[in-house]
Amino acid sequence: MNIETITRKPAIQTHKTPLLFVHGMWHGAWCWDEFFLPFFAEQGYQATALSLRGHAGSAGKIRGNSIANYVSDVEQVAKTFDTPPVLIGHSMGGFLTQKYLQTHTAPAAVLLASNPHFGLWPTFFRMAMKRPKTLVKVTAQLRLYPVVETPEAARMTLFSNDMPKKQMLKYYKKLDDESFRMFIDLLGLNRANPKKIKTPLLILGAENDNAISPDQVHATARAYGMQAEIFPNMAHDMMLEKDWKLVAERILSWLKEKGI
Fold first, then answer.
1. Which of 4, 15, 132, 186 has the maximal Cβ count within 10 Å?
2. What is the mean pLDDT of residues 235-246?
3. HSE on the CB side for 47, CA within 13 Å?
């Protein structure tokens, strides 16, 4: 499978452990290259983001993909490094990171506004209550694009109300469709098992997240015997929000604490 990757290399590499960034639903490697990849390259890391199959510049189709398909993409890229990378996964990418870590070793991993290990039922019920017409479209079309099909819907799901419209539209135009088959997996057919994961984790969430609420982030952290950290005044796409650097700096300081 031809998987698109974007890599930013530091002028002077001061950290031998590479970073691998895994995007969430509707996104691609592009979402990390806006701010995060250049930031971490400037800090001396080789920073790489992948686009899952069918997304952005990667080969394949989105329709019909399962969580197992997407984990396979992560495995394919992770194998290309000389040393196991730190994984940083956002939203669905955080769930893929958990699934990957069940069978692979990594020096550390970051879950950023991650889908919880137990599935997306809370998000499903919240959508049923707040956006019933969208849910009808999703189930009728067997695809998840209706969740973000208009700029207004995309902002509600992903971006803060105060994100400038021009910036929001730039990201909106890059959004892909997303697999309904994968969504069924996330509702419970393919859960993550925290007991199988021994990798050190940093679990971060956003206060104003309409996709993965802070209580879901805290629930995931509790399953790993940890405390989650919630960033105030921030929406779901934490790596694209105006305060993205606060998130990046927290990840950086944590990696340094771990000696990575």
1. 186
2. 98
3. 24
Q: Is 20 helix (H, G, I), strand (E, B) or coil?
A: strand
Say if residues 58 and 85 touch (Cβ distance below 8 Å).
no
Q: How far apart are the first and last CA of the chain?
A: 30
pLDDT 10s digits, 33-55: 999 999 999 999 999 999 999 99
DSSP 8-state secondary structure symbol assigned to residue 242: T
Residues in the chain, overall count: 260
**Which single residue is written with the structure tokens 């000389």?**
82
DSSP 166-228: HHHHHHHTT----BHHHHHIIIIIT---GGG--S-EEEEEETT-SSS-HHHHHHHHHHTT---
Domain ranges of the chain: 5-257
Closest CA to 89 of 72, 109, 106: 109
- Rounded CA-CA distance 78/99 in Å is 14
Question: DSSP label at 148?
Answer: G
Percent share of the chain, pLDDT over 70: 100
**pLDDT exceeds cutoff 80 at 198:** yes
Determine the angle formed by the axes of helices 92-101 and 67-78, rounding to 10 degrees: 70
**Nearby residues of 62 by Cβ (< 8 Å), 6 or more positions away:** 53, 54, 55, 176, 177, 178, 179
In 3-state terms, what secondary structure has residue 147? helix
Paired with 22 in beta bridges are: 50, 89
CA distances, 24 to each of 44, 72, 174, 227, 236 (Å): 25, 15, 13, 22, 10
Give the pLDDT band of residue 126 (cuts 50, 70, 90): confident
Write the class of the CATH domain 5-257: alpha beta
